Amino acid sequence: MNQLLNKTKGDKVIWALVVLLALMSLLVIYSSTGSLAYKMYKGNTEIYLFKQVVFIGVGLVLIYFFHQVNYTIYSRVSKVLFWLVIPLLIYTLFFGVRLNEGSRWIKLPIINLTFQTSDLAKLVLFMYLSRMLSKKQEVIKDFKKGFLPLIIPVGLVCVFIAPANLSTALLVGATSMLLLFIGRASMQHLFYTGLIAMVPVVILILMAVWQHKEGNGVAPKVENRNKLTARVATWVNRVETFMYGSDLKNDEDNYQVNQAKIAIAKGGWMGLGPGNSEQRNFLPHPYSDFIYAIIIEEYGIAGGAFVLFVYLVFLFRSIQLFRKCPFAFGAFLALALSFTLVIQAMTNMAVNVNLFPVTGVTLPLVSMGGSSFLFTCTAIGIILSVSRFVEKNQLEGKEEEEEEEETHDEKEVAHA
């Protein structure tokens, strides 16, 4: 055990935050799935807890493995993976497993495991984008030589993710734009790109307003919404629910939001206590999309604020890592992956407190395990790989300084 701990390098604060979120995940998953497990498995209320323990164990192994790999290898690997992930996204779009009327998943043969290709695409894109940003710094202000080779990969990934998972596409696009801004891309280029990206969002809002007027405040079922495709109808419905809220009747998304509000109201400042959630019996997906509402119900606003604080500390440590890393690729890589995790967490929390339309985004490291949980652990492992290099570089720098000081002292003694 001591030998394993000695080999565990990287930012100790990030390691501590990972363990803290994992322990918090066990508590909330056990509480939020108790009733469901009792119904599904004839009284066995611990089944989902055991599954989460397995996922956390596998996740920690992934973090340890990827943090031991030299982070420069991810630069070389990203060139190959990026051009493999694009066909994979296209395949998922047309032939993927359909859940919630969207092709988000792909099923692996033999092991019969499904995973979201968008999670893999995010990870690969940010590795590739970090590589390109580090190589294009001298021509970053030039549109053709600098900006275009960076924005095209972002556009491709977002376009192929969006039809099945618009919220993830928007998060990937926003994180990429933020990374390009930090990477000194032209503000003019970013501004015009942002305007183009806002066009479909504005169209969705206008469609939601029109649909609300046509329906007189009553949200019809997705399949009956004129001749809109199922996914577009779902997006419009979610925007409409966010804008008009309780004015809508018979709407599933509005039901989720209202149940989350009830959970938050019951929690108050200090919460009902661990395992005492009442809304877990009414709130859809209390163990994934709406787990933050359960956290507030059981641990109060104080507990919700603490979770927010944990993610902010994680971001702060990653920004420090960005500033300390001597090489551009490692700095951009750590920042990109931390941004995407923290922005995802903020989005999930915003949805739960009704500051953002309903999405299928989970709370990283806290929501019940799945492919998203494992890809999150992989991203954290890569961040810690960069941190391990920075730690090693600083240690070598201190040793060189100490050697120089010793040599200087020896020369002074000899001179005396």
Automatic annotation (TrEMBL):
Keywords, sorted A to Z: Cell shape, Glycosyltransferase, Membrane, Peptidoglycan synthesis, Transferase, Transmembrane, Transmembrane helix
Family: Belongs to the SEDS family. FtsW subfamily.
Localization, UniProt: Membrane
Protein's UniProt name: Probable peptidoglycan glycosyltransferase FtsW
Native source organism of the sequence: Flavihumibacter fluminis
Coiled coil: none
Transmembrane segments annotated in the record for this chain: 13-32, 53-74, 80-97, 150-183, 190-210, 290-315, 327-346, 366-386
The keyword ATP-binding is annotated on this UniProt entry: no
InterPro entries tied to this protein: FtsW/RodA
Membrane topology, as annotated: Multi-pass membrane protein
Region (Disordered): 395-416
Catalytic activity: [GlcNAc-(1->4)-Mur2Ac(oyl-L-Ala-gamma-D-Glu-L-Lys-D-Ala-D-Ala)](n)-di-trans,octa-cis-undecaprenyl diphosphate + beta-D-GlcNAc-(1->4)-Mur2Ac(oyl-L-Ala-gamma-D-Glu-L-Lys-D-Ala-D-Ala)-di-trans,octa-cis-undecaprenyl diphosphate = [GlcNAc-(1->4)-Mur2Ac(oyl-L-Ala-gamma-D-Glu-L-Lys-D-Ala-D-Ala)](n+1)-di-trans,octa-cis-undecaprenyl diphosphate + di-trans,octa-cis-undecaprenyl diphosphate + H(+)
